[in-house]
Design goal:
mainly alpha, 6 helices
Length: 119
């Protein structure tokens, strides 16, 4: 088995673990924690500058769950590839599939992230 195939599997394990973590952390946030609408959040975060408030609001739990689901769909499409190296084993370049590298890059500060996965 090539190093690329092993690296691809390790990357997929890493990605599944990060998506699972994001899902679990997000499910732990209740509507009461987050607030009902902009005004409820604004009252709790009234000291935040407008730009920071807009950023926090944009990353609400529903959006995070949609991003996790999108990441899982990407991984599901890659299951068609037996080696984990890319769609239908078409990716033959060095390192993992660029799509998976891009997906993993959001967690490049995680201790389990392998710099060899960097896009």
């Amino acid at each position: 088995m090539s190093t690329n195939k092993v690296a691809g599997r390790d990357l997929i394990v890493f990605l599944n673990a990060r998506l699972d973590e994001d899902w679990q952390i997000t499910l732990a946030v209740t509507a009461d924690d987050w607030g009902a609408g902009d005004e409820a959040i604004r009252l709790e975060w009234e000291d935040l500058p407008d730009a920071a408030f807009r950023h926090a609001k944009r990353h609400d739990p529903a959006r995070v769950l949609r991003e996790v689901e999108a990441g899982r769909r990407i991984l599901d499409r890659h299951r068609l590839c037996p080696s984990g190296a890319g769609y239908d084993d078409m990716w033959t370049g060095p390192g993992p599939c660029p799509d998976l590298s891009d997906l993993a890059d959001r967690w490049n500060d995680h201790p389990d992230y392998d710099p060899a996965w960097r896009p």
